[in-house]
Automatic annotation (TrEMBL):
This is Uricase. It is found in: Peroxisome. Belongs to the uricase family. InterPro entries: Uricase, Uricase_CS. Keywords: Oxidoreductase, Peroxisome, Purine metabolism. The active site is at K12, T57, H283. 5-hydroxyisourate binds at T57, F173, R190, V254, N281.
């Protein structure tokens, strides 16, 4: 039976990196999980057992660690991903594309005041940190040098995953389709909880070609507010928008709240072209206590709830800039 290799990509997954950047007595840290995959003239490694075209995945891992040590852009996942991908497609003549994914784990300074006391709102300890949430920031970069090593372009998306939120009122769900299959009761007040997955896509950017022999240079162009080179500020705004809208919206539905979130992310970041949210319902069902004469079902009296893991609703949408 005739067959052909339609697509090939390979690389290193789950490269775990913790980097400490020392600025005098003040230290900065980032913890990343990095995936780096390559495409190019590598078909013969599959079809003819020709390893001469293979950049070993161990080498990709070592390059990741070397740049984690030497790159001035390590504290920004967007910039570091672009630096790593640019180096890979620039160094190897037969590699035309690099796909870099970075997942950043949260570390926040412990809020210690000058007297050594834990105080909310304090500036934070210069070298002591704690994990203040399970949500992760992520960046996905596609570096494309197919048109030439001097014509590299990048498509970048970023976002947040696993941001768990819950509100105990100002959420309803009414006036939905009712037919012979409907058992859900309309409710004008309920718990609203979800694990936010947010992804936003930046406008395509051109990447300056490294001019040094080892292809390690990486120059950041002029920073435009709300663009990929402004990624840290965009990430802060997107997370703040998500939390502010969730908390403040008198939600008629998950769909309606989602749309308000996405509209603001687009409006507040001039070079974000599209925003996608996926919001799975985290259901909390009031426990029926009528058998002992206790009202725990009406919205005003519901106080004891049973968490339900599955099945759950899943609401998603993509909002684009006009």
């Amino acid at each position: 039976m005739a067959s052909t290799l339609a697509h090939a990509r390979y690389g290193k997954d789950k490269v775990r990196v913790l980097r400490v950047v020392r600025d005098g007595k003040t230290h900065h840290i980032v913890e990343y999980n990095v995936t780096a995959l390559l495409e190019g003239n590598i078909d013969t490694s599959y079809t003819q057992a020709d390893n001469s075209v293979v950049v070993a995945t161990d080498s990709i891992k070592n390059i990741t660690y070397y740049l984690a040590k030497t790159s001035p852009h390590i504290l920004s996942p967007e910039r570091f991903a672009l630096h790593l991908g640019t180096h890979l497609v620039s160094k190897y003549a037969h590699i035309h594309k690099a796909f870099i994914t970075i997942e950043q784990l949260r570390w926040t300074r412990i809020p210690i005041d000058a007297q050594g006391h834990l105080v909310d709102g304090a500036q934070g300890h210069p070298h002591s940190f704690f994990r203040d949430g399970d949500d992760k920031r992520f960046v996905k970069v596609e570096l494309d040098a197919s048109a030439g090593k001097d014509k590299i372009v990048a498509d970048v998306s970023a976002g947040i995953s696993d941001l768990l939120v819950l509100k105990t009122t100002e959420s309803s769900f009414e006036n939905f389709v009712r037919d012979e299959y409907t058992t859900l009761v309309e409710v004008d007040d309920r718990i609203f909880s979800t694990s936010v997955d947010l992804s936003y896509t930046f406008s395509r950017v051109s990447i300056p070609t490294p001019s040094d022999a080892k292809k390690l240079e990486f120059a950041v162009p002029e920073v435009q507010a709300g663009g990929v080179w402004d990624g840290d500020a965009v990430a802060r705004r997107a997370r703040a928008v998500t939390l502010e809208v969730f908390a403040g919206d008198n939600s008629a539905s998950v769909q309606a709240t989602l749309y308000k979130m996405a509209q603001r992310v687009v409006a507040e970041n001039a070079h974000v072209d599209s925003v996608t949210y996926a919001l799975p319902n985290k259901h909390y069902i009031p426990v029926d206590m009528r058998y002992i004469g206790v009202d725990n079902l009406s919205p005003a009296s519901a106080e004891v709830f049973m968490p339900i893991a599955a099945p759950s609703g899943l609401i998603s949408a993509t909002i684009t800039r006009q």
